[in-house]
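Below is how a single chain appears once it has passed through the pipeline. First comes the sequence as given, then the structure the pipeline wrote out for it. We keep one example in the README because the format questions we get most often are answered faster by looking than by reading.
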Amino acid sequence: MNGAKAPFFFNKNLIKFEKNDFMRRTKFYSILVLLMCLTFSVSCRKKGCTDSAASNYNSEAKKDDGSCNYDVSGCMDTLSVNYNPNANIDDGSCVYTPIITVNGSSDTTISVATTWSDPYATAANIDGAVVLVSDVSDVDAGQVGDYTVSYSATNNNGTTTVVRTVHVVINQDTWLGDWSVSDNCGGGTGLALNGSPNVIAGGSGNQILITEFFSGITGSYGTAICQVDGENITIASASDGAPGGLGDIIYEGFGSMNSDGVSFTITFTWQNTTPLTGGSGTCQATYSK
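Resulting structure:
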């Protein structure tokens, strides 16, 4: 009919579905709210150290966070015999072995073929009481090498040992002094070496001068300028008058010092320009103390 309202039909199944859906949703949100409350409650519990034996015990903490610290008494001095790395309260229990003082340098260098004089060492307890020092040395001043001297001192708490290192070396001092020479250099018509020269220091730490280098008709003369580097010696090309004054001797050389510091050998190349009797060649000379 025109203008008439459509008839209303009551759907019981639809109402029932909506009611069940509402109940399911309500139950879900209730569980979600409960879980959130539990989570919030746990996260908000106060954290800290809950061990009453710890130095930082927190009586208000409800959850232990692993931060507990504990007082440990002991010796806290790393130089002591009974140092306790876990101690955080020094209880005055530290004890010590003797304290050794090395006289002079603990790392010493001397020239080979000289005399080694040990400056020794002293020792005392922490209270200043003097303690006897014993030593063991393998130093051989007659041979190049690195050596040690060990010093030891003992008290009721144990033994302390310290070491001095001694380097025995060939240096400028080793080359200095009076030497005797044996050679095959030809005498007056060759490289006329003097049999008893004297070596002195040059203008720098690596220079030496062989004085009275040549043997002349009336005596020794001349100076050879040499460069030294440890055990090695080099003589740059040089010249001087030959014995008799009729020519020149032109020479150069190289060689090395023995490890005992009491002899060295130089290989020379030379030319003697003296008319008729001169010549040239290679020879060796050994210098000894």
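The CA atoms of residues 50 and 64 lie 5 Å apart.

See the next section for the split statistics.
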